[in-house]
């Protein structure tokens, strides 16, 4: 991980009735997506939701850990931890 990148811990609920960022639970972000967990579709939906809310290209967000788990870690390029939290708070 380079100096400008931040790992973001995310707890995902796939197959939800709507896609939304629920909020922070400690240092972990809770997210709901409508996509099912099969075939990596929920992971793709989380990347798209985070990119939209953080106002960054989806290509700057990468799944690092947890491809088959609800607990995931994403690399968010070019944003500090404080910037990620601030942008997500403003997007809610």
Q: Care to describe what's here?
A:
Helix content is 27%, strand content 33%. It is of the alpha+beta class and 92 residues long. It has a 5-stranded mixed sheet with strand order 2-3-1-5-4, with helices on one face. The longest helix has 14 residues. The model has no long low-confidence stretch (mean pLDDT 90).
The DSSP helix count reads: 2
The secondary-structure class comes to alpha+beta
* Largest sheet report: 5 strands, mixed
User: Helix and strand string, N-terminal first?
Assistant: EEEHEEH
CATH class membership = Alpha Beta
Query: Could you tell me the strand content as a percent range?
Result: 25-35%
Helix content: 25-40%
Let me know the number of strands.
5
Mean pLDDT: 90
* Rg, nearest Å: 12 Å
The geometry reads as globular
Low-confidence stretches: none
Cα distance spanning the termini: 28 Å
Please give the order of strands in the largest beta sheet.
2-3-1-5-4
